[in-house]
Design a protein that fits this description.
Length: 357
């Protein structure tokens, strides 16, 4: 089994025919394997090159410098090497495919710089400091004395916001549902942006030690850019782990790799896949990747019935009860980061379903 390639060119003529063609390819990819490369995405290669240049600059800083912006209570900042261990089970189409408690023996062998959406979610009459008290709402942190780093990150971030919105429209076309009904929930999306550095792992690699342990993403749509080092692997429905390296398209641009998260799979009643993936850096070189997590607003209700009958016929009961995206996210973050959160002032690690959003 191979990872499909989706050419976005038909989208750019703004025709319903073009959207329909891409939506068909999207449906096939996410029913079959749960990952796809996208090409002709219109993100300038110069912006991709520059953000990776700055990515390497940041992670080359001394540890004490990076720790000046260590991850805060709003899940923003620097996350040191081996800071947390994956604990969530990995399910695909509702079926357990990776028992993390058995497989994973050590924290992830990676370090990250993390920012999230730079807008606030909540009633307009709340003061800024009150908005900071809402789940995962707060200021980003930036390394000191690196204005070029911030500029490159935000340039890339804003390009991917535009791309992610187009992918969202494809998702709704695949669901045979009018995107305009849901557009307001993506006006102030929940965005996670993570720049990961994976040092080379020693050989032989101990059992149960990963750069990134097997997991499914939490949210809606993930867009990945990566260097040429390799190490990312995707688990196919037949249980085989296959390589998902960087790909350069015929026009010389870096392709993006996209996948759906757990909330998207649940929303489609497990008809579209959230697929386990992992990183093992056997290369002897440093690996760099950038992950863009694109999700609806935290108060958005994930309800299969809202998507119509494409994924769940009217006479069939949905597999999941409705819940907000914020409730879904907090449960998973609390499970995987609970030990880390105990070390951060002001952070709640409770698995609380009553999320303020």
């Amino acid at each position: 089994m191979t990872i499909p390639i989706i050419d976005l060119s038909p989208l750019w003529d703004s025709s319903s025919t073009g959207l329909s063609k891409v939506a068909q390819e999207f449906t096939y990819a996410f029913q079959e394997i749960g990952f796809a490369y996208i090409v002709n995405h219109r993100v300038p290669q110069s912006i991709i090159n520059e953000v990776f240049c700055q990515h390497r600059r940041f992670h080359a800083l001394p540890l004490e410098e990076k720790n000046k912006i260590r991850l805060n209570q709003w899940h923003r900042g620097y996350l040191p090497l081996a800071s947390y261990q994956i604990k969530s089970e990995s399910k695909s189409k509702g079926i357990l495919v990776e028992d993390t408690k058995v497989i994973v023996k050590a924290p992830n062998q990676s370090e990250s710089f993390i920012i999230n959406h730079e807008h606030f979610e909540g009633p307009s009459d709340l003061k800024e400091e009150e908005l900071y008290n809402r789940f995962i709402q707060g200021p980003n942190q930036w390394p000191h004395g690196m204005p070029d780093f911030r500029e490159a990150v935000l340039s890339y971030y804003h390009e991917l916001e535009k791309l992610a919105l187009e992918l969202t429209k494809i998702f709704f076309a695949a669901s045979q549902t009018d995107f305009n009904r849901f557009a307001k929930h993506f006006e102030r999306p929940s965005i996670g942006f993570r720049m990961l550095h994976y040092p080379p792992q020693p050989s032989p690699i101990p059992e149960g030690v990963f750069g990134s342990a097997p997991h499914c993403d939490y949210g809606f749509i993930t867009i990945l850019a990566q260097d040429d080092v390799g190490g990312l692997e995707v688990k196919t429905p037949n249980g085989e782990w296959i390589s998902a390296p960087n790909m350069i398209s015929s026009n010389g641009e870096s392709a993006f790799l996209i996948n759906l998260g757990d909330s998207a799979s649940k929303w489609t009643n497990d008809c579209l896949r959230a697929t386990p993936h992992r990183v093992i850096n056997r290369s002897g070189r440093d690996r760099y990747s950038i992950v863009f997590f694109w999700d609806p607003q935290l108060d958005f209700p994930i309800d299969t019935r809202d998507l119509g009958t494409r994924w769940c016929p009217a006479e069939q009961k949905p597999n999941y009860e409705p819940q907000t995206y914020g409730q879904h996210l907090k449960k998973l973050l609390s499970r995987n980061y609970d030990e880390l959160y105990k070390t951060i002032d002001g952070t709640s690690n409770k698995d609380d379903s009553k999320v303020k959003n």
